Automatic annotation (TrEMBL):
<feature type="binding site">
    <location>
        <position position="291"/>
    </location>
    <ligand>
        <name>(6S)-NADPHX</name>
    </ligand>
</feature>
<dbReference type="GO" id="GO:0110051">
    <property type="term" value="P:metabolite repair"/>
</dbReference>
<feature type="domain" description="YjeF N-terminal">
    <location>
        <begin position="8"/>
        <end position="202"/>
    </location>
</feature>
<feature type="binding site">
    <location>
        <begin position="56"/>
        <end position="60"/>
    </location>
    <ligand>
        <name>(6S)-NADPHX</name>
    </ligand>
</feature>
<feature type="binding site">
    <location>
        <position position="243"/>
    </location>
    <ligand>
        <name>(6S)-NADPHX</name>
    </ligand>
</feature>
<keyword id="KW-0521">NADP</keyword>
<keyword id="KW-0547">Nucleotide-binding</keyword>
<dbReference type="Pfam" id="PF01256">
    <property type="entry name" value="Carb_kinase"/>
</dbReference>
<feature type="domain" description="YjeF C-terminal">
    <location>
        <begin position="210"/>
        <end position="461"/>
    </location>
</feature>
<dbReference type="InterPro" id="IPR030677">
    <property type="entry name" value="Nnr"/>
</dbReference>
<feature type="binding site">
    <location>
        <position position="146"/>
    </location>
    <ligand>
        <name>(6S)-NADPHX</name>
    </ligand>
</feature>
<keyword id="KW-0413">Isomerase</keyword>
<feature type="binding site">
    <location>
        <begin position="117"/>
        <end position="123"/>
    </location>
    <ligand>
        <name>(6S)-NADPHX</name>
    </ligand>
</feature>
<comment type="similarity">
    <text>Belongs to the NnrD/CARKD family.</text>
</comment>
<dbReference type="GO" id="GO:0052856">
    <property type="term" value="F:NAD(P)HX epimerase activity"/>
</dbReference>
<dbReference type="GO" id="GO:0046496">
    <property type="term" value="P:nicotinamide nucleotide metabolic process"/>
</dbReference>
<comment type="function">
    <text>Catalyzes the epimerization of the S- and R-forms of NAD(P)HX, a damaged form of NAD(P)H that is a result of enzymatic or heat-dependent hydration. This is a prerequisite for the S-specific NAD(P)H-hydrate dehydratase to allow the repair of both epimers of NAD(P)HX.</text>
</comment>
Amino acid sequence: MQKIFDEVNSLDKRCYEEFGLSEDILMEHAALSMQLYIQENHSDKKTILIACGCGNNGADGIALARLLHKKFDVSLYFYSKAKSQMAILQEKRAKALDIPIIEEVIDSDIIVDCIFGTGLNKALDDDAVLLINELNSLDAIKIACDIPSGISFDGQVKSVAFDADVTITMGALKTSLFSDIAKDFVGEIKVANLGVQREIYETSTNKYLLEKKDLKLPNRKKHNSHKGSYGHLNVVAGCKKGAGIIAAKAAFGFGTGIVSVVCHENLDLPYHIMQTHFISKNCTAIAIGMGLGNYEIAEVQKILANDVKKIVDADLFYDELLLDVLDEDIVLTPHPKEFCSLLKLSNIADISVEQLQNNRIKYVEEFTSKYPKVVLLLKGTNVIISQGKNLYINTFGSAVLSKGGSGDVLSGLVGSLLAQGYEPLDAAISASLAHALAGANYKKNDFSLIPSDLIEEVRRL
Ligand SMILES: NC(=O)C1=CN([C@@H]2O[C@H](COP(=O)(O)OP(=O)(O)OC[C@H]3O[C@@H](n4cnc5c(N)ncnc54)[C@H](OP(=O)(O)O)[C@@H]3O)[C@@H](O)[C@H]2O)[C@@H](O)CC1
Ligand SMILES: Nc1ncnc2c1ncn2[C@@H]1O[C@H](COP(=O)(O)OP(=O)(O)O)[C@@H](O)[C@H]1O
Ligand SMILES: [K+]
């Protein structure tokens, strides 16, 4: 996993104070990283337009223009007059080389957005909105310097943002790049070294970006085993039985030795999935909530009181019963609307889905600081998983997963790993990665995936 930081000003400051690096040195490295990226990946291109603002993000752009001048046909466009000391200095250097400055945006092979970086501190004015829209409309390779202009420090996009193919971010990954809203603007994210290796630049953090290698698939290395060695998951099926059945199939395909669906009604299940009317004595984990509907309160209470690992999903997020188990290391997998209900039930906040989506990390942190044992997995295009103070982000998912039943597959996967003995946090992380990577591996197209395809892809991981 890679470290993520809410802000990097303190990391820059450490470079000045502890490593004796100047702002100029850091900026030259920022520009050099962009130059190398462009030369290594787009040496066949000819024209480059660099749009600059008045602060140090603009200064990065002017320094980049100087580095690329003559190798490419570079033009500088100023959204506003240089204001920061570094921007004034870089402009002087650029002018000494007669780098072309243009008054109107022109078609170019590559556009580099250096209008605003981490210093965006107010709403975009009409001119900025017009400029960003104009740049977005051009058919070019689009590179954002540090962060696409228009994304604020907390990851919000109020009006418009630069629509990057690649974001070259300076020094370290920033939280703002990983909001659900930002995902449609940042493109591929690359980190530029600012004069020291990243591991030196970075300090400690409590936020991490998950990588493929963080997926820990179940394994069966011991031959002296039997089905019971791989756990017994009970999936409680309610009025919408399909949800429980999808979860049960996903769990079986992900390695659980025995999977039983708990339901009073007799179900037509695949032969390898068992049915039980009550929780099995030897079950090692329980999945409950998916399609639960109006289950009897006393019965749900009894199920939740079982001393095995549990994953709770869907309908139970609307029920105060859940409050009784929030002092356990239970896994909760709400989507945003369900999480809003949970925040309200737990007296943390009474907010709309939009307010949540604009501040996902903030509300996750509020919840997990009130309930530090719970493993919370907040669904979304960038899934957030958190327990206590630590927070992990899974960005591998995509719109192929926006289908009824995708969440049921996920709860089955979490339940499967819990039943097989994973710790709740590890189960949530690996299930979420398996879910998203399986979706990404489905190559037919981006619209036709159904839960059984997703389970098939999980089985192929
Ligand atoms: N520090 C370092 O060592 C390094 C820094 N680096 C680079 O510096 C970048 C941060 O630079 P920065 O702090 O100068 O802020 P930046 O994003 O250029 O914008 C600030 C200017 O924009 C203005 N402004 C803001 N919002 C506005 C709006 N809506 N509409 C209009 N104007 C608006 C704001 O106005 P003011 O507050 O002055 O009124 C201010 O003048 C960072 O992203 C990275 O690229 C790298 O080189 C690595 C080393
Ligand atoms: N655009 C998207 N990008 C990434 N993941 C997505 C996207 N849309 C949906 N998902 C994932 O699909 C799942 C949907 O779950 P949910 O809304 O609970 O569906 P259901 O209850 O119908 O099974 C979640 O894991 C979510 O993170
Ligand atoms: K930018």
